[in-house]
Model the fold of this input.
Amino acid sequence: MSPGEFFDLLTWHDVVDVAVVAILVYNLLLLIRGTRAVQMVTGMFLIAGVFYLARLGRLVTLENIVEKFLIFLPFAIIVLFQHEIRRALANFGRGPFFGRAGRGAEQSTHADAVLAATALAARRIGALLVFERREGLRNYAEAGIPLDALVSYDLLINIFTPDTPLHDGAVIVQGDRIAAAACFLPLSTDTEISKQVGSRHRAALGISEETDAVALVVSEETGRISLAIDGRLEPIADGKELRARLQELLVADLESKRRASS
Done:
């Protein structure tokens, strides 16, 4: 079939059909990005490949075994991806059609984070918040204590209060929600970092080196606030500057992504 004949047979129904499938596949990839579900999906493709090769090579026994397994595959997908499915349904209203409400929630999130950070700094209580951007942080969140709660000043203060169960480790923020607390992050191995920098700052630098996340860290010794971005520490003078930087790094970055995808 020549290209001309192909386009003659192509209808707008076909274009819509392909576009919808592409959008669904794209959002599915976004949903599992940064999680162990990627390995699970890879394993499922390998099983499908084995089934195809068994049929091609007429390996009847192997084909029958894999075929029986594939019958239960839809149920296995529901069990294995129940967390991702639940999160996808919960976040369905946060798409492009509801962008305005999402931006307002994110700005409120940053305001609560700024208030909590400045309050903790004034009391010299250490804290570490990691804000997810393009790269998923679910592998790190899964190693902590899952919360899936709205970001709030009171909750953050309670988490980082000394001698509480969730005090140690980092809080991972995804959108306007705290995904998990007490998360342990990779420490930076940069030998040029001052030895006076503690493990909390090294963890902030480590996650910013391995991902594009923004880490907000409050020093327990000095009460100073810093942001870790792209493997470097940026000192923050006060709450006003912190709010402006989070607005620039997170909200403005999200706006640019939405414009690019629209």
Observations:
- Confidence is low (pLDDT under 50) at residues 96-104.
- Strands lie at 127-131, 145-150, 170-174, 177-183, 214-218, 225-229, 232-236.
- Residues 99-261 form a domain with the YojJ-like (1 fold (CATH 3.40.1700.10).
- The chain is about 55% helix and 15% strand.
